[in-house]
Design a protein that fits this description.
By secondary structure, the chain is of the alpha/beta class. The protein contains twelve helices and eight strands. A hairpin with a 2-residue loop joins strand 1 and strand 2.
Length: 297
């Protein structure tokens, strides 16, 4: 299977991306989350490569992509601009479907809000719409408890704590989000090598430090948050929207989907009962089949 690594430029920031599949097929840009890299989508992409052109970026801070030092560089508008730069480099002036998992879902939503004219479809795999996520954190006890790790990742000592003992805590975090028996020893070592790149761990954590999402302590009273005060019309998904949801996710609870239909009039939700947060690894056949069916409608 032909694979090619290239780079796109967003101002001074270079973003690495890999392409797989048929250049004459419909294009899908696939965005990974924390603490992964472009390989997060590989198993799914390989199952779609006979029909589609798959574009897998290493988002800023990951792999060979640039790792700006300042927190501001990880605001949503910059991450969305990276995606558009990659699309322009890989498929100039061509519309594309956009898929995102975990943090990649947050970036995918940002692109859908601000540049819907570039998209044919939006696919989210266990990721969250910002308004629905923020409301779930404030109103759902289970989601607030599950999101407490976000505050720990913003702390000044997070790099030191996560890198101890060969990134033991970071590996444990992966296992804590849902089952991780899909990870081989070779894959675990590849993750550690990526996290060990100069500036990588701080860059990865800066995604959390730049986030506007408010995570109060369990039991604390909070009336609202900036995300909930933004105009709802600015967070609308106007393109056909698929959510593939592994129901065994321990990091993102079912409350995160409540209210999503109010922002996405063309919404389809496909639940996968026997998968969790890492459903791209756990059930790649299922995810690929659901994406292919959705894009083929």
């Amino acid at each position: 299977m032909a694979r090619r690594l290239a780079f796109a430029r967003n101002g001074e920031v270079e973003i690495a991306f890999e392409t797989i599949g048929r250049r004459d097929g419909p294009a899908i840009v696939m965005l990974h989350g924390f603490p992964e890299n472009r390989d997060a989508w590989r198993k799914v992409a390989e199952r779609l490569a006979d029909r589609f052109y798959l574009i897998l970026p290493d988002q800023r801070g990951y792999g060979p992509s640039a790792k700006p030092k300042n927190v501001e560089a990880y605001r949503g508008r910059h991450l969305a601009a990276d995606v558009l730069a990659v699309a322009q480099a890989a498929i100039p002036d061509q519309d594309f479907a956009l898929a995102g998992h975990d943090w990649g879902a947050s970036v995918a939503y940002a692109v859908a809000f601000t540049h819907p004219q570039r998209l044919t479809h939006l696919v989210i795999a266990n990721g969250v719409h910002p308004w629905c996520f923020q409301r779930a954190i404030l109103e759902d006890e289970g989601q607030r408890a599950a999101s407490q790790y976000m505050s720990r990742l913003k702390a000044g000592d997070a790099e030191a704590r996560l890198s101890e003992d060969g990134f033991r805590r970071l590996m444990n975090m992966i296992a804590g989000f849902s089952r991780s028996d899909w990870m081989t020893a070779a894959e675990a070592e590849a993750y550690r090598l990526g996290w060990s790149l100069p500036g990588a761990l701080t860059a990865m954590l800066n995604w959390y430090r730049a986030s506007p999402i408010v995570v109060p302590e369990v039991g604390a009273a909070v009336a609202t948050a900036p995300v909930l005060e933004a105009p709802m019309e600015k967070m609308t998904v106007s393109v056909p929207h698929l959510v593939v949801w592994g129901e065994q996710d321990e990091a993102l609870r079912p409350a995160c989907l409540h209210g999503l239909v109010d922002f996405a009039p063309a919404l389809t939700v496909e639940r996968v009962p026997d998968a969790g947060h890492w459903l791209l690894h756990e059930r790649p056949d299922t995810v690929a089949a659901k994406i292919a069916a959705f894009l083929g409608r």
